[in-house]
Amino acid sequence: MAQPLNFVLNVPETPEDHGSQEPSPCDESEVHDSFHQLIQEQSQWVAEEGLELQQREPGAGGQETSGSGQQALPGPEDGLMHSTATLRILASMPSRTIGRSRGAVICQYYNRSVRLRRRVSRPELKGVGRSARPSLRLYDLELDPAALQEEEKRFLLVKELQGLPVAQRDHMLRGMPLGLAEKRCLREESQTPTGKQRGRQGPRGLFPCCGRLRDACVLALHSLGLGLLAGLHALRPWRYALKQIGGQFGSSVLSYFLFLKTLLAFNALLLLPLLAFIVGVQAAFPPPAPLGSARSFTGLELLTGGGRFTHTVMYYGYYSNSTLNQPCAPPPAGGQCSREAAGLPYSMPLAYLFTVGLAFFITCITLVYSMSRSFGESYRVGSTSGVHAVTVFCSWDHKVTQRRASRLQHDNIRTHLKELLAEWQRRRGSQSACGRLRRGAMRGLVWLLSLGTTLGCTVAVYAFSELMIKSPVSAEQEGALLALPVVVGLLNLGAPYLFRCLAALERHDSPVLEVYVAVCRNLILKMVILGILCYHWLGRRVGTLKDQCWENFVGQELYRLVVLDFIFVLLDTLFGELVWRLISEKQLKRREKPEFDIAGNVLELIYGQTLTWLGVVFTPLLPAIQIVKLLLVFYVKKTSLMANCQAPRRPWLASHMSTVFVSLLCFPSFLGAALFLCFAVWRVKPSSTCGPFRSLDSMYEAGKVWVRHLEEAGPRVSWLPWVHRYLVENTFPVYLVSALLL
């Protein structure tokens, strides 16, 4: 039969207990005999938790560590030894303090208030006679009835709180583990009559009505501040939805939605300078409309981006090449306005060039910062040591009081523990040499098939783009312009499903490696297709559209690709998740739902964001369209995930997934878009009939023209041409900044 553990707890006095600190009445049983009852009650409570406080006679038994001051605590059969520090930690754990009554809390804080008050305002007890010392006998303490006992303890606590300074009293009341109403009552009762009278009269003896008005204003401002803080906390997008997704589907699926939220912030940051310095200014000073530009709205413009949208602030061709504070009609044969008409300070070509460059620079800095911070959080040295113990003992938030929030936190901790245990089991697994060789051969074959599929898709896109050049589409056949975007969308939709079928033959042991391989294959496919499209636009279309605004055509192509990409995402969600779930449940009689395809969905986001960065110069409002698209994709994917998908069959920890996603967004996506735009700005000749850079040899030449005007303006601004010559045109600072960012 199990016997209860009897521990002997003898807490040695620390040096701090002797110096300036006054021994409290609880420690002097020979002075205050009535305090013995309170100490005995706390001793009985500790004994119920498995620890028994016993007074030991000097020199009686026990083992003592030499020189350390710690007591050796015998366990069952003297086999388990606990130090004093260990017992202190055990006695203060939530499992041993959660069941304490309000009376025990009041008694504990009463003892603490006595020590504080005597330390501040009373002399040492050894210098005071026994008759002058306070005693609980004067209060006629009755300990039998529980209610009366609690009231007496409360009365004593109030008396002791009244003797403390206001700051110490408020600090102690905040730390008490009591309800807010109980703390408020204790605070009101512990106020001295002088303080209450001062509170009624106000700080300077004002009338009672003025004091009440002041208190009401202070409370109103305090409540307003708390309301604003709560509103800002609640304005964080999808706070509850992300917690719900993480609790039910794990960190792997949650990483997709967190990445979508990051892209939303990047697009908002990119859109703000474009709206402030390009779109808003041009909308305030619209250029004269060309003849025959007014067209009726047919609805097809929402898909093609042409028609009525062509001569609007959405596209590059709408923006003028002059200052916007003074009207200037362009010459019939093209060319820039005269210097007299363009003499006002706000030049649209300079604003267009510098704003796009500034927006890309801010995006680059934000991307590098996000990647470095994510890398530091994911690959922190020593982050995996003791993670199981930390998750078990330190994950619960004791401030959670609502049932829904506690259920979400419970699901999050449970899913996180599953992921940690699955990761630990996979690390312990082993495989024979023949098995590794057989799987390596199979994976090599699957990679060859995947690369062959990518090559076939690339050839198909190139052949179809050449066909579109050889058979031009007239203005009346705008629907035919959707042919190339539809082909690209179908290839981007079908190829990932083929990659998933081939990945089933590989049988990766680690789900993390399986996702990384799928991401790599999809990334190669989409980047190669985008490379073919960039060559089609800048290498082929610029030459065939000499007398037209080729910038508008490229902007409309990118708009069509973004819109059709969103449509194919909806079709993929409908047929790939909803219809498959219905077929599995109704026809195949299976209870298994499809899993959420993390790799394919993440690459769709990266692909759409790359299209947005490619089209910033040609379609300044494309980031706004991308923001609307991301918002709709979030709610569509979240609804489909909750209704049609199940959690991963093999839980896995996606600790590094966010870092990988941001890295892929930075290097292949953003770097490729930056190279494309740099080539368009420096090497490609702009159209001579539209846009702010008409009749210039390149978009970058607008900066050179501005520098020449500054050199002619006088010596006051001579330092600006020097900065442009040695910091912008010189290649060394550009390489240095690029190296620092990398």
TrEMBL record:
Keywords per UniProt: Membrane, Transmembrane, Transmembrane helix
Ranges that cross the membrane: 218-235, 256-285, 350-370, 445-465, 480-503, 515-538, 558-583, 611-636, 656-682
InterPro entries listed in its UniProt record: TMC, TMC_dom
Record GO cellular component, one term: plasma membrane
Pfam family, one: TMC
Compartments it resides in: Membrane
Membrane topology: Multi-pass membrane protein
Chief place where the protein resides: membrane
PANTHER family listed in its UniProt record: TRANSMEMBRANE CHANNEL-LIKE PROTEIN 6, TRANSMEMBRANE CHANNEL-RELATED
Protein name listed in UniProt: Transmembrane channel-like protein
Organism per entry: Callorhinus ursinus
Encoding gene, per UniProt annotation: TMC6
